[in-house]
Amino acid sequence: MAGKACPWAQDEAVQQVLMSDWSVSFTSLYNLLRARLCPYFYVCAPQFSVLFRAAGLAGSAVPTAAIAPTTRGLRDAMRGDGIEFSLPLLEESRSRKRKKGEILEEQAFSHSSNDDDDDGSFSWLEEMGVQDKVKKPDTISIQMRKEKHEVQVDHRAESLVLVRGSNTFTLLNFLISCRSLVAAAGPQAGLPPTLLSPVAFRGGTMQTLKARTVSGRARAQGGFEDVFSLEVLGPVLPHALHALTMVLGPAQRGSFRALLSPHEPSAAFNARPEDVQQDLPACGLHPKTLDQLQQCPTLGKSSIRLLEMKDYTYTWKA
Asked: What family is reported (predicted)?
């Protein structure tokens, strides 16, 4: 049944054509981003998601790409291709622990070698004459112990990888040739990742979100009141959420509530890259929306779940 429903899953020729067309669309989006004609776009792969942001967004003076969640294998592959990156949430966590006076047992990504110390720690066995009866850890075991902390962050928010500047172009080529970018099984088997963008791009199609309205009555002071709700299903991009709030504000006389259901792995994209203000062209978005997108994120690895307006004043909970 899977083969009949997904004919491309078993046809390598079809998969190559799909991947070739997808690469053209991906490159088109990246060129728009570098030209600052596209503010941001997402690459949604089975194992991870990538958020590309133009220079001027989230307080960054250069283009950035955030990847979450990641694994040690993916990070090693990126290093092997010469991609320089940082792990801002992990570094922030380590810095916070240092300030609290906590001592980390192991340092992730340490380039110093302590092999001599490890060998020297067994010198007392030689003094007792039992060094041959005790099995010393080999080099691989020592290396695995050193990298324990790095492996522990896999698939967690702290595994967020941030790529900046010209390294985003190297990342583009890396992703195009990355085998794990395409699912090997399941309903998406053989299909390239989904590209989500607020602007048109080569090979892109416009998709509408599903909306449903519900009305009812709820208890209120002095009796009941009419309650209306709007349910929006699908990938609601940041600019679309801001556009909805600008519509609902005056339409609901400054009072409404919005319950949000975020894609959990993407919450890490709220990590703060840096604090630099830079203008960004309109990119087809509302000026007020651009103002919001240009601000530095403050949520860390959290995301807004409740947004409420009362008397035209916003409050939210993460």
From this structure: Belongs to the DONSON family.
Contact between 221 and 194 (Cβ < 8 Å) = no
300: left (phi over 0), alpha (psi -120 to 50) or beta: left
The residues, ordered by sequence, that sit 6+ positions from 79 with a Cβ below 8 Å of its Cβ are none
Can you give the residue ranges of every domain in the chain? 2-94+155-196, 109-146, 210-317
Tell me the HSE value of 293 on the side-chain side, using a 13 A CA sphere: 29
pLDDT in the model for residue 150:
61
Structure tokens at 215: 């009305």
Asked whether 229 and 214 are in contact (CB, 8 A), the reply is yes
CB contact at 8 A, 242 and 295: no
Q: List, for residues 156-200, the tens digit of each pLDDT value.
A: 888 889 999 999 999 999 999 988 888 877 778 888 999 999 999
CB 255 within 8 A of CB 263: no
**Do residues 288 and 296 make contact, with C-beta atoms less than 8 angstroms apart?**
no
The Cα 307–Cα 318 span in angstroms is 9
**Confidence at residue 126, expressed as pLDDT on a 0 to 100 scale:** 59
